Amino acid sequence: MDLTSYAVLAVLLINSPERLESLEGAGELLRESGHSAPQQRVTRADVEALRDLRGDLVAIFESATAGDEHDVVERINALLVRHPVHPQITGHDGSPWHLHLTEGGRVADQFAVGAVMGLAALVTGLGVNRLGLCQAAPCRRAYLDTSSNRSRRYCSDRCASRANVAAYRARKRGVTVG
Fold it and tell me: 20 to 30 A Cα–Cα from 74, which one of 48, 65, 164, 168?
């Protein structure tokens, strides 16, 4: 089981604040993530819990972007205590037996367990510097750096291109862009 793939859940939640404004939006987010069964109902308590989790995850990515490894680890450890993992072997949709991190609890709890375990696996396996916030102002969307040379600084090609064009234009005017 590749737990680092679960870290994408954290990025998805951070980058989707508008979806946490309604039950429908949160339900769409969870179904899109593949982390919620279609028959599971999202409650207002789930939406509130996801908003709180999003704030905690943003703080982790901010600390990682600032290079504060100890704060990242402390924050992830606190979330691991708050969202304990309950692994279960399962088989569904014609898939062979495999592990799921949790099958019980609220919808938001299931999402949280996956996101937090994914970040923990990524940080311990690849390092804190693989978490980041887009450096293209004013974006600040989260990303996971999966490049071989740890060089990613933007959430998307669009932001990278926009930042490079802005830097080029600033150089042409003789202004330094940071």
Answer: 48
